[in-house]
Amino acid sequence: MFSKAVISLALAASALANVFITSPVASTTWTAGQQATVTWQDDGMTPNLTSFGASLVGIYTGNANQQTLLQIISSSVDVSTTSSVAFTPDGTIGPNSNEYFVRFTSINLKDATNSQFPAEAFSAKFSLSTICVTG
Ligand SMILES: *[C@@H]1O[C@H](CO)[C@@H](O)[C@H](O)[C@H]1NC(C)=O
């Protein structure tokens, strides 16, 4: 059984690193089918955005130990030369929920404390409004 303390520590460690995501934030609500923009900046800590480099950006759900990729926003964006990506959230990825988050996964850089994992950065959990059309 996982302890909540362990999960919180892992999230805090991730939050300390690298890409500071300025959209979405906890108050963000995106609507499926309408254009949304992910934005970020360097947080001034190591590694910097140059080191983080090309990244996979996606919408995920889950927790610190297990995350499920629901939608790819960009399969390779260089976070040091680009600071935003516009995309359209897909309404079929899941229900209306405030449990979604954006994750950046560096393609080349490894996690500073555990080199078998890639370096990652996480947004706050945000809300996605998906419209469920039933026949
Ligand atoms: C980013 O970090 C790398 C490695 O520490 C360093 O070589 C590089 O000069 C830094 N780039 C910037 C723009 O600060």
TrEMBL record:
UniProt entry keywords in alphabetical sequence: Signal
Traced from the root, the source organism's taxonomic lineage reads: Eukaryota, Fungi, Dikarya, Basidiomycota, Agaricomycotina
What is a single Pfam family found in this protein's UniProt entry? Kre9_KNH
What is the official name of this protein in its record? Yeast cell wall synthesis Kre9/Knh1-like N-terminal domain-containing protein
Signal sequence span is 1-17
Every copy of the Yeast cell wall synthesis Kre9/Knh1-like N-terminal domain together lies at 23-115
Which GO biological process entries does UniProt record here? Answer: (1->6)-beta-D-glucan biosynthetic process; cell wall biogenesis
Superkingdom classification of source:
Eukaryota
